[in-house]
């Protein structure tokens, strides 16, 4: 190997390390935004919610920084094979993390519409779902940084659990709406909040697919596991004749 | 210019044409899926809805085909400057079109939960919003194919109109829920359908940003125009004392 090509390889490795650092930073920030948004929601902290909305800008800027770094590496280093897959993966992962940030922002926005009427039971279920999603985001970024396809597959498989929690929340929230028309507005926002968090889980699943492909060169087969059947769900109000008996 | 570099350039142009063809095909299919899903919804055609759900697979496959073509071009042609921006843009646009397809699939799924209780007024408003979104998708793909930043900017600016339609639909649907608890399940699905279509508009706006950057090298400044204020919306049920008077 000539001194010059060694130099090029070292420069490429340095740039890849820098890119990984940006992805790790962006992922960490997305996790924090999610956790903070749910915390502000549960505590009814409108001021904090506003800071979270403002904080989304940092994620948008990190995505642009990652995009620029990727384009620069493609132009100057012209990576091939596994290196090329890594660089393209970074671009895709940044786009998913940006979306996760958008959903956290939306959760924070909606929490302000809920300040007066927080149904603690549903909020508890939302917080539990959010913790699972947050763990999935953390794990899939570890999978990216460690080039660990098995870890990515694990996140991908566990999305079903999040979907099932969401379907349960969907049904419970519709029932809550039916109990009193005054519940309808807050419950609708809770429903969208739950959906946002479920979508963040989908984006973690997307990242898992990208990481798996990056490491193995093979796509995860057969479509992702699906536990969200809420799109088909029909929840009936209690019949007036049943006098408030069972659901 | 040597014969050999001419050959390389011609091969690159051919590949770029092929890539543009794939994007045009994928965009056309996404448009068709959206229009068909809304049509199946309005007509309560569950059989057609199922075909639309199955048809999403073709969009997923096209995205994979575009990804593979992009990675191949990056590895073999090593484009720089404007060419590199075009190729990276194709990757991002394909991801947005895939999401648009996912939303169309979800509209089709939900339409089957609505078969028995279709509120024609809301369905009409949804269909109008969908036509705007469809026109935006078509226009932004023309902007990509013609490298027309002005056309892309126009789509970007008009997303506000779609957001405003959605906010109106949000309020009307909540009011409809409050009128009768039996409306709650179908209205919730209508709300998510409307949200799905609004999100497709956001993805057309994303594509507009990608096209604008690809053509001009400059990012659209100042965050996108926002007409969707529904995240902050609170709709109150009629007071029982008002005896069913005005909204």
TrEMBL record, chains A, B:
It comes from the Bacteria. The keyword Transport applies. Residues 23-110, 126-211 form the PhoU domain. The keyword Cytoplasm applies. Residues 222-247 are annotated as: Disordered. It is found in: Cytoplasm. Keywords: Cytoplasm, Phosphate transport, Transport. It holds the Pfam family PhoU. SUPFAM superfamilies: PhoU-like. Plays a role in the regulation of phosphate uptake. NCBIfam families: phoU_full. Belongs to the PhoU family. Homodimer. This is Phosphate-specific transport system accessory protein PhoU. The gene is phoU.
């Amino acid at each position: 190997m000539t001194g010059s090509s060694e130099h090029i390889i070292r420069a490429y490795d340095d740039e890849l390390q820098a890119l990984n650092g940006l992805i790790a930073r962006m992922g960490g920030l997305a996790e924090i935004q999610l956790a903070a948004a749910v915390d502000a929601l549960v505590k009814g902290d409108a001021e904090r919610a506003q800071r979270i909305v403002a904080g989304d800008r940092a994620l948008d800027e990190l995505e642009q920084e990652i995009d620029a770094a990727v384009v620069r590496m493609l132009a100057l280093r012209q990576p091939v094979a596994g290196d090329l897959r890594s660089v393209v993966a970074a671009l895709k992962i940044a786009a998913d993390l940006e979306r996760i940030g958008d959903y956290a922002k939306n959760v924070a926005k909606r929490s302000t519409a809920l300040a007066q009427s927080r149904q603690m039971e549903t909020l508890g279920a939302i917080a539990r779902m959010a913790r699972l999603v947050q763990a999935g985001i953390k794990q899939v970024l570890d999978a990216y940084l460690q080039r660990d396809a098995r870890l990515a597959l694990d996140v991908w498989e566990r999305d079903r659990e999040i979907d099932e929690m969401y379907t349960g929340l969907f049904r419970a929230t519709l029932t809550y709406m039916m109990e009193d028309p005054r519940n309808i507005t807050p419950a609708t926002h809770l429903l969208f909040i739950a959906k946002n968090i479920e979508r963040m889980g989908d984006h973690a699943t997307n990242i898992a697919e990208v990481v798996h492909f990056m490491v193995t060169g093979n796509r995860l087969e057969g479509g992702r596991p699906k536990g969200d059947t809420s799109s088909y769900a029909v929840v009936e109000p209690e019949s007036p004749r049943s006098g408030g008996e069972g659901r």
